Amino acid sequence: MAELNIKRLIECREKNGITKMEAAKRMQLSQPAYLRYESGERTPSIQTINVIANVLHTSVEYLTNQTDDPSPVSYTIYKASDPELFELISQCKDKERNIIKRILAYATMLETKP
């Protein structure tokens, strides 16, 4: 199993502007457990690395030195914490590609308007 790159973990947390305590909370970890991961004292399981990557908006591959691209390769959306986005994805998941592309173009247009 690939090892967690501590430097990248810290870099991603800081890039997201969150404290160690907030990171632990968002990852549903105890603060001491998270601190052990960030100090290199403990190695998280692959499942925990996946949670860390999701919270820090990056990928497991980036956190484990398998790529130099920090972009996420997947997202996990929970209905309880983000019901609107969850519903949007539910509505779109079985649509044809051209409809999804139109929705994306519309979302991009909304993002650029003041």
From TrEMBL:
GO terms, molecular function: DNA binding
Record-linked InterPro entries: Cro/C1-type_HTH, Lambda_DNA-bd_dom_sf
UniProt key word Transmembrane: no
One Pfam family per UniProt: HTH_3
Superkingdom to which the source organism belongs: Bacteria
Gene3D superfamilies: lambda repressor-like DNA-binding domains (1.10.260.40)
Key words, A-Z: DNA-binding
Domain spans labelled HTH cro/C1-type: 9-63
PANTHER family linked: HTH-TYPE TRANSCRIPTIONAL REGULATOR ANSR, TRACRIPTIONAL REGULATORY PROTEIN-RELATED-RELATED
Record's protein name: DNA-binding transcriptional regulator, XRE-family HTH domain
Organism per entry: Pseudobutyrivibrio ruminis DSM 9787
